[in-house]
């Protein structure tokens, strides 16, 4: 990558000051399992000035020599069981490596420097949504939702393949990692430091019968290492960059306008893959385009000895005959329907609530304990899964009906007691699912509208223009104060952004442009009178062309 100047890394390995080191330590979480020495983050945070000064000397030595002490290469391996029998094979467990906290603090300081440089200079061009500061899984999720919504609105062919990589971190080959680091023109000393973290390592395994003897680790990067997610993003970036350059029939989001003047092609959003960490989804407008990308990814995986779990690949397309399961695909824990239907999500949410209500029904738990579990365990789970799906108050009530019944039973309340009393903070403080989801959707819309990522900014404008075109609105949808004319339409209820804008009307919050730019233009059409202001609602709905 000749466009990258090596000078951007000049400060990467400079000796850290005491303030930077103390700031790094204070940012580390409490309550975490320690490494073999049993030193915890809390101990580091309570060190005195003399101990901190001595520790800083060690950290500076590590930066100067681009190496770490041998004792930091020893770790404990904690196997977390999977739902099935593990047959005494570590590969059948979820592995967590417990490293020394001083080492992790040192690596955290190095990670903060490296990630800031990579983000500031746009070094990684593959488009992975993870690994760098500000990365969030919300962006790829709303992007995939927008693609499926566009395909349904415009009747465009869409092919989606969800891939699964087995033991992603464990499959990283250090020689190929070195090539990936040199590709972004990282200094030789920084490459040496990174590789030293994963060389000459030894692990011991926690078991029910004590620790095993130590064994040598020859491949992969540690699951519990702070910098491992960023290294995976760097490792996979060559593949994503090639996929971007060799696009064949990508899916294109073309903004639609009510004006006769055609829009510039530069306003189109071209997408052929969505990747968050090791969760990869290939997207195309044709079968041949998907096959082309799949051949590239398979070649990369074979070259790098990466194990792809083909049995867990999921293919969905609106160009294939649909079955009960072929039209549903999971992406980052959120389920998507190729037809944009909300029925599966409604059933899924109801199933989660019913399962929760059945578990503690016979347990000796108080009403407040049940409410606590519901508010802190189930609600965040539902919030995440429904972040791009709107359900009506009636649907939310139906889904949580058994939970309400359980809480009333535990509190010895009458079943005839109105549910709103359960929501009062002065009473039990049960979270109202419908109100909570409205708050979350509005918050996510604010984050999307104010995103610092150029792609998400353009995606937000595209969604506004699509709403404007679909429902014949001559002003920006942000300026609409009454959505009752469209609220009963099927096309409206399937549009996540439109539903969120409508639900915002009942809140004190509003979205408006502070300024207009090329990525955030003024969508108001000058000199045009809205058709719905000249017709009766019945006539307008009869004439409205809904995709």
From TrEMBL:
The lineage of its organism: Eukaryota, Fungi, Fungi incertae sedis, Mucoromycota, Glomeromycotina. Residues 61-336 form the Reverse transcriptase domain. This is Reverse transcriptase domain-containing protein.
């Amino acid at each position: 990558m000749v466009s990258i100047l090596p000078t951007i890394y000049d400060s990467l390995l400079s000796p850290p000051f005491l303030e930077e080191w103390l700031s790094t330590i204070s940012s580390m979480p409490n309550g975490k399992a320690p490494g073999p020495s049993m030193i915890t983050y809390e101990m580091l945070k309570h060190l005195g000035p003399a101990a901190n000064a001595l520790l800083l000397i060690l950290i500076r030595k590590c930066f100067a020599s681009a190496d770490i002490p041998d004792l930091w290469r020893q770790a404990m391996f904690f196997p977390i069981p999977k739902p099935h029998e593990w047959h005494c094979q570590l590969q059948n467990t979820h592995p967590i490596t417990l490293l020394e906290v001083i080492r992790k603090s040192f690596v955290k300081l190095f990670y903060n420097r490296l990630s800031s440089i990579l983000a500031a200079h746009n070094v990684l061009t593959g488009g992975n949504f993870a690994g760098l500061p500000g990365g969030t899984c919300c962006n790829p999720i709303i992007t995939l939702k927008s693609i499926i919504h566009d395909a349904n609105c415009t009747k465009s062919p869409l092919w989606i393949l969800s891939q699964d990589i087995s033991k992603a971190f464990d499959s990283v080959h250090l020689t190929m990692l070195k090539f990936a680091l040199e590709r972004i023109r990282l200094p030789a000393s920084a490459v040496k430091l990174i590789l030293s973290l994963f060389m000459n390592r030894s692990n011991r395994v926690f078991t029910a019968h004590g620790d095993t003897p130590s064994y040598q680790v020859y491949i992969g990067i540690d699951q519990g290492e702070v910098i491992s997610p960023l290294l995976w993003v760097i490792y996979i970036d060559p593949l994503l960059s090639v996929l971007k350059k060799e696009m064949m029939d990508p899916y294109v989001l073309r903004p639609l306008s009510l004006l006769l003047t055609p829009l510039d092609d530069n306003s189109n959003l071209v997408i052929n893959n969505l990747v968050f960490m090791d969760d990869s989804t290939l997207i195309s407008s044709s079968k041949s385009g998907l096959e082309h990308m799949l051949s590239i990814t398979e070649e990369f995986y074979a070259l790098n000895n990466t194990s792809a779990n083909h049995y867990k690949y999921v293919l969905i397309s609106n160009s294939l005959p649909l079955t009960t399961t072929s039209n549903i695909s999971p992406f980052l824990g959120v389920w998507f329907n190729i037809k944009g239907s909300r029925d599966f999500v409604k059933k899924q949410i109801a199933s989660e609530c019913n399962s929760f209500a059945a578990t503690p029904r016979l347990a000796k738990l108080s009403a407040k304990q049940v409410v606590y579990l519901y508010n802190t365990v189930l609600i965040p789970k539902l919030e995440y899964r429904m972040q791009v799906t709107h359900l009506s108050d009636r649907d939310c009530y139906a889904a949580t009906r058994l939970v309400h019944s359980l809480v009333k039973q535990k509190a010895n309340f009458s079943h005839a007691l109105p549910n709103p009393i359960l929501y009062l903070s002065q009473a039990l403080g049960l979270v109202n699912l419908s109100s909570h989801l409205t708050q979350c959707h509005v918050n996510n819309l604010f984050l999307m509208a104010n995103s610092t990522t150029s792609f998400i900014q353009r995606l937000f404008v595209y969604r506004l223009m699509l709403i404007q075109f679909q429902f014949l609105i001559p002003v920006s949808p942000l300026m609409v104060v009454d959505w009752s004319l469209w609220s009963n339409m099927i096309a409206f209820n399937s549009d996540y952004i439109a539903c969120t804008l409508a639900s915002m009307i009942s809140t004190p919050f509003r979205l408006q442009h502070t300024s207009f730019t090329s990525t955030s233009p003024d969508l108001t059409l000058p000199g045009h009178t809205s058709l719905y202001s000249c017709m009766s609602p019945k006539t307008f709905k009869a004439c409205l062309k809904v995709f």
